[in-house]
Each structure stands twice: as C-alpha cells, then as structure tokens.
C-alpha cells in the first residue's frame, strides 16, 4: 500500500484526540491527503457498536457486557473500519490518522479487563490479518491528571449533547493502573512502531513533538 497509517493511543484525557486533529490540519495544510477516523466508530456499523460499548445507559438496558463480548465488539468495529475506510485510503496513497486501534484493545481488554495480551493479539491476527500501523503515537501523561480531564470532559459532553460515553470512565483507579501498565509494556515491546510521549506539557508543546516525529517518519 502506498499510504501511511498512523494511530494515536493513550488514556481518555491524554490529549490524543486533540493532537490527532491538529496533526490532520497541519498535514492538510501541506497539501497531503489525510483521512481521520476513530475506533470504535467511524462507519455506520461502527457508530452503532460505539453506542453499545461506551454509553453507560446501554448497559443499563442490556446488563453488564462480558469482557470477551466487549473484545469481540471492538474487533467487529475494527474489521469494518479496515474494510470500509483504512485499506481504501491507504491504497489511494492517503495518510490515515486513527484515534485508537488494537493497542487500545490490548490495554483496555487485555490489561484492564485482564483477558491478557495473547488472547487480544490472537483475535487481532484472525480478524485484522495482523495489520499494524506504520507509526503509533502513545500519549502517556500522568495517570491521575488524564483521568480527571476525561471525567470532566464527559460531564461537559453530557450537558451539551445529552449523550453519555462514560462507561469506561466509571471504572476504578486499579482498572486504569492496569491499562496504563499495559500501554507501557506495548511501548517497550513495539519500540520500532510506538513512540511514547510522556510529557504533561501544554498542547502546543506536545503538538510540536508529534509533528517532529511524524515528519521524520514521512521523510524516510
């Protein structure tokens, strides 16, 4: 494929979505063809799956979601986005910027839900054919600061839009310590693909770090 596949990873509240949008704007200003999407979501099917997975009200209607069912739904969304968005964009020579990918499943379901990395990676191989990004930008600022920002943001979202995507944010600190630890393990294991940015710096500073990494990779 002629395009380039970049993912953004990290806890909610880490700033990854903001940095993805800023990078997309910068690359577009350079005349590069850019496609952005998020997981779960980004397709008609994916948006329906997102509602089931993230909206705490859906759990009240259906009952608790089993960890393995949660993992399967994440990968159903991912398979659809690969088929419908990612592969066509890469084949057209575009840069794909994706908010979350399989590293999120390894961190949240493998680590947080304690399913383990081997099970997540086996599903990834079966469903995604082992397709990995060319580059992953992992934002790992302070754990407590990230959680605080995520929970405040969700409260604002509920007030503004009336929808609630806080099903994961309701988890306790121990869950998020496992997620954070899993991300650290991924960064160490996949050091050629994953660039971890641990600074809890202003948005503009992180933007500069992200841009430097991406431009170096694209020039190669």
Could you give a quick summary of the protein structure above?
The protein is 60% helix and 12% strand. With 220 residues, it is of the alpha/beta class. It has one domain (4-219): P-loop containing nucleotide triphosphate hydrolases (Rossmann fold).
Outline the secondary-structure elements.
Layout: E1 4-10, H1 16-29, E2 34-38, H2 44-54, H3 56-62, H4 67-91, E3 95-99, H5 102-112, H6 117-128, E4 135-139, H7 143-161, H8 173-189, E5 194-197, H9 203-219
Parallel strand pairs: 1-3, 1-4, 2-3, 4-5
Helix pairs in contact: 1-9, 2-4, 4-6, 5-6, 5-8
CATH topology, by name, is Rossmann fold
Output the strand order for the largest sheet: 2-3-1-4-5
Annotated CATH architecture: 3-Layer(aba) Sandwich
Q: What is the C-level CATH assignment?
A: Alpha Beta
- What's the pLDDT, averaged over the residues? 90
Q: What is the element string, with H for helices and E for strands?
A: EHEHHHEHHEHHEH
Structural write-up:
- The chain is α/β, with parallel strands linked by helices and 220 residues long.
- It has one domain (4-219): Rossmann fold (3-Layer(aba) Sandwich), CATH 3.40.50.300.
- The chain is built from nine helices and five strands.
- The protein has helices spanning 16-29, 44-54, 56-62, 67-91, 102-112, 117-128, 143-161, 173-189, 203-219, and strands at residues 4-10, 34-38, 95-99, 135-139, 194-197.
- α1 packs across α9 (203-219) and α4 crosses α6 (117-128).
- The relative contact order is 0.19.
């Amino acid at each position: 494929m002629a395009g380039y596949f970049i993912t953004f990873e990290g806890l909610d509240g880490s700033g990854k979505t903001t940095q993805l949008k800023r990078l997309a704007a910068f690359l577009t200003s350079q005349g590069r063809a850019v496609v952005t999407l998020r997981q779960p979501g980004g397709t008609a099917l994916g948006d329906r799956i997102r509602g089931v997975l993230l909206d705490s009200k859906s759990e009240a209607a259906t009952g608790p979601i089993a960890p393995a069912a949660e993992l399967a739904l994440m990968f159903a969304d991912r398979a659809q986005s690969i088929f419908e968005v990612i592969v066509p964009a890469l084949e057209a020579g575009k840069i794909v910027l994706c908010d979350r990918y399989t590293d999120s499943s390894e961190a949240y379901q493998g680590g947080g839900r304690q399913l383990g990395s081997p099970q997540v990676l086996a599903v990834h191989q079966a469903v995604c054919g082992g397709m990995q990004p060319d580059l992953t930008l992992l934002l790992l600022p302070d754990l407590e600061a990230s959680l605080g920002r995520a929970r405040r943001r969700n409260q604002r979202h509920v007030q503004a839009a009336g929808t609630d995507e806080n099903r994961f944010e309701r988890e306790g600190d121990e869950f998020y310590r496992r997620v954070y630890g899993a991300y650290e393990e991924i960064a160490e294991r996949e050091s050629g693909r994953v660039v971890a940015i641990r600074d809890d710096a202003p948005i503009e500073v992180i933007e500069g770090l992200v841009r430097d990494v991406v431009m170096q990779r694209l020039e190669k």
